[in-house]
Structures are given as structure tokens and as C-alpha cells.
Amino acid sequence: MSKIKRTALSIAAALATVTASPAVNAGDFSLTDNLSVTGFIDMSYVYSDADGASSESSSGLDQFEIDLVYSFDDKLKAQVDLEYKDSYGAVDLEQAFFTYAVTDEFTLKAGRFLSYSGWETEEPTGLFQYSGTGYAPYFYGYYQQGISGLYSTDSFAVALSVINSPYSPEDTDSEKPGYEAMVAIMPTDSITVKAFYLSDEDTNTTNVWASYAVGDLTLAAEYNLGDYANGNDGSGYLLMANYAMGSAGITVRYHDFEIETAAGALFDDGSAITISPSYAVSDNLLMVFEYRMDESDVRGDSDSIAVEALISF
Description:
The chain is mainly beta. It is 4% helix and 60% strand. It contains two helices and 17 strands. The chain has helices at residues 3-12, 136-139, and strands at 29-30, 35-50, 56-71, 76-85, 90-101, 106-114, 143-152, 156-163, 178-185, 191-200, 203-214, 217-227, 233-245, 248-260, 266-280, 285-295, 302-312. Strands 2-3-4-5-6-7-8-9-10-11-12-13-14-15-16-17 form a 16-stranded antiparallel barrel. A hairpin with a 3-residue loop joins strand 7 and strand 8 (156-163). The radius of gyration is 20 Å and the shape is globular. The N and C termini lie far apart (45 Å). Residues 3-23 have low confidence and may be disordered.
């Protein structure tokens, strides 16, 4: 049994009492009666120590984003998200879409928008820790171009997106569109269960997650399956506990995934325990600290430490 799995088993009984990271109280502000702005600045320092290699450290601006939301009336809204990342070295258009509320329960969305799928969000403002699992590109949808319909009540929701591809915003070929379907149930205020099926020609992925949130405690579990056009297939899951104590909090997460070729050979894999305390310095500044132990037969084992400053507005 690996050191990560032994450690995961030893902390599993404690998950119900482990603490969750507090969210920054960010809210949009209005430039005019119709135009509002929201966004964030994300900075970090990361130290990593991989087995058989020299340790490395890096720091800098991870991402800056500004989102513009224009309300034409009670039914029609448009949103444009612009982001800057050091990895891009330029400003990039992340999302640009409009929504139209046909009724109180049914909304249409069209343009370039983010997939509904996945427990872990694309943006750092929606994460309970610094790092994502890293398996999202194998199982989650990404930014998409097309149209989506969402029917939602307090206890039930369904959505269907018809897009060029659920996995790539650069795909502009609509001759063979992709699809993303969602079914969600919220039987109580504390419990949410969502299931997603995404398809793009010969690539299909399934994502199911459930969360339980009561008071300052949040528990979540996720399971993924993937069947890919190149013949590979994969699976992955995560377990997470998060608890807030006033301005402070802590998150514990375990995840594991494996991708195999059609011949049964290992293509990629990984598992990790992540422990992430956090502290809300103010309503708009959140400090996140993370210690992560990774194991992989393909990429090797590593330990990392991260410190993140996340300013939201």
C-alpha cells in the first residue's frame, strides 16, 4: 500500500470534523445602473520537491480577471470575462455570452461559456484549496461555443448544451456538434447531487458529484469516467472535507485517477493528499496555504508547498 493511501485511510475517519476554507466575500460593483464589474487577482509562491530531481520554486501573478456584466432588462443579460495569465503573456477572452430568462425557471445561454461539469471550478475563487486535482482535462468540460438551456427549481435542475465541442473553445466546426447534459437534485438545503454526460464524436466523459454542506462544514465526493477517441479510457475520483472557523479554515482532499491505453498500458495516473489551511484577512483578501503529497507511476512522486494571495472584487 502506498504512503498516500495509508495516510488517506488514517484521516478518513477525521473527515467529518476537518475544517473548510472560508470564501472571500466578493461582490460586484456597479459602474452604471446596468453595468457591473467583478474579478480577482491571484498571486502565489510554490515550492516543489520531486523524487530524483532538484527542488524548484516559483512565484508571480497566476491570473488577473475582470468580468463585465450588462443587464439590458430583467430578462436579457450579457457577460464578457477578460483574463491575463503569465503563461499567456497577453490578455485573453475567456467568456462572452448572453442569457435570456424565458421564464423564472428556464434560461437560454448562447456564446462562449464554461461547462457546468466538475466539482472543482476553473477559477481559483471557487476552489477550497490552492491547487486543482489536475485531472480536469481528462473528465471535465471546458470553455465551449454554442447554446445551452437550463431549467432550474429549488430542488431540481436539468440542462442541455449543444456546442461545437464540450472540451475546446477553439473548435468552430458545428457540422458534428458536441453535447453536454446535466441532471441535478437538491432534496434539502444541505444536499446537492449532480450528474453530467459529455460527448464529442468518439470521446465521452461522465462526471458525478455530491456535496453536503451544513453550517461551517462542507463534504464532497466525485467520480469520473472517460472513453476517448484515441482508444484510451480512464477513471478518477476525489473526496474532500472543508470546515470554517470564523476567519480561518482548513481543507483536506484526496484524489486518484488512472488513464489506460486501448492495450491496457498505463498512459497517465496520479493520486495526492492535499492539506490546505486558509485565513480571510479581510472581506476581499484570502490567504491560502497548501501542502500536497503526489504519487504517480508515470510522472513520479513529489511534495509541494504553496502560499496564495487571492484578492476578489
